[in-house]
């Protein structure tokens, strides 16, 4: 089983460039999440979705956008990359609230120079 | 504001001892609390879930307690092994489906 797949695994961006981090899950989960993790820190929620067509802001949404046109895909868009967005990004999915575990992708390590 | 706090200082223990990690939260009324393990360079992996009406949950060498009055969960690893060395994160589901994590506690088990 593939589970949650993120691409790319690594990326270097120049300041002001744009990119999309891809996230796909094959478990038919309704809930999907994007987190960033800075060195030595926990996970900060950027955006989340409770189903296709529904997205909402998390703790640190500024500088990012998302869309959820299908159940499987939840891409994260960086429009104008800034050095402060250098981080490791994780995508996760779960089948429901609270009483179900979240499954994580392997992460995307992004450096903005 | 809502907060989830874990001890940010690394926990160093000797092999065979019991490791105890703490998760405190404020301004939440979670129905569930979860614990995850994260190894360097990897995504978190689910370990245990406990419901608000459960005082304690066990899985092999792992034990989790949940005190909704104190707003605290304790995570215990008994008979710890060097392979248990990792960062452990607690997480709560917020209203509307948000899954919020604490900052994690790094555990190091020395042989």
- Per DSSP, the total helix count of chain B is 0
Mean pLDDT of chain B: 92
What string gives the helices and strands of chain B in order? EEEEEEEEEEE
Poorly predicted regions of chain B are: none
Compressed to H and E, one letter per element, the order of chain A equals EEEEEEEEEEE
Please identify the structural class of chain B as seen in this structure: mainly beta
Q: How many beta strands in the DSSP annotation of chain B?
A: 11
Q: How is the biggest beta sheet of chain A arranged?
A: 7 strands, mixed
Question: Span from first to last CA of chain A?
Answer: 36 Å
Poorly predicted residue ranges of chain A: none
Shape of chain B: globular
**Tell me about the biggest sheet of chain B?**
6 strands, mixed
Query: Taking all residues together, what is the mean pLDDT of chain A?
Result: 95
Give a quick set of tags describing it.
heterodimer, A: 113 residues, mainly beta, four-stranded antiparallel beta sheet, 50% strand, globular, B: 111 residues, six-stranded mixed beta sheet, five-stranded antiparallel beta sheet, 57% strand
